[in-house]
Every structure is written in C-alpha cells, then in structure tokens.
Automatic annotation (TrEMBL):
Residues annotated as domain Receptor ligand binding region: 9-89
Gene3D superfamilies (UniProt xref): 3.40.50.2300
Single GO cellular component term: G protein-coupled receptor heterodimeric complex
Subcellular location: Membrane
Protein name: ANF_receptor domain-containing protein
GO molecular function, one term: G protein-coupled GABA receptor activity
Chain segments annotated as transmembrane: none
A GO BP entry: gamma-aminobutyric acid signaling pathway
Keyword Membrane carried by entry: yes
Keyword terms: G-protein coupled receptor, Glycoprotein, Membrane, Receptor, Transducer, Transmembrane, Transmembrane helix
C-alpha cells in the first residue's frame, strides 16, 4: 500500500464477514471500497458513515427490497405469499 502507484480502490466481497473488516481498514489508506452484493443493514446505519467512510455498495439494501416486496404484494391484493430461500450452508444441503 505504501508503494507507487498506490491503488485507488478495491472491489469487496459479497459477504459481510469479509467486507466489514476490510471497510474498517480501507479508510486508513483512503481506499475506495466497492461491494457488488453487500446488503447488510449495518452499512446503512447512522454511524456507518463514520465507521466505513470509504465503503459503498452498488446494490440496494435488504430493507429497500423488503419495502418493494411489500408494496408489490399490497398492489395486487395478495392474501397468501410463499417464498423460496437459497442457503449455501452445508448443513442445509441435501447431498454433501
């Protein structure tokens, strides 16, 4: 990080456990940190700008998506809704 030319920014990961420590450290080197898939609400709190000043995500947060889903359901007057969820956790796999 101390050599020239210095990097301008980095592309972060999709997972919070990778992005959070990286976002906390990148501010000390004034590195722009972009995440293509981070949606955790901790990056949108009131103190997030102070804790992660150089972190930016390029997708909406989960709360924004939930608001859109709710409006969609209300708009069509649906009474019952089902959801599907994907988990990459091996303990939920059918075959390992």
């Amino acid at each position: 990080m101390n050599e020239s030319p210095r990097p301008f920014g980095i592309f972060g990961d999709a997972y919070t456990n990778v992005n959070e420590p990286l976002a906390m450290a990148s501010k000390y080197w004034h590195l722009l940190h972009l995440s293509y898939a981070e949606t955790d609400a901790k990056f949108a709190t009131a103190d997030a700008q102070e804790m992660y000043p150089t972190f930016f995500r390029i997708v909406p947060g989960d709360q924004n998506l939930n608001n859109a889903r709710g409006r969609f359901i209300s708009r069509f007057h649906w009474k019952k809704v089902g959801t599907l969820k994907q988990s990459d956790d091996p303990k939920y796999a059918l075959v390992s």
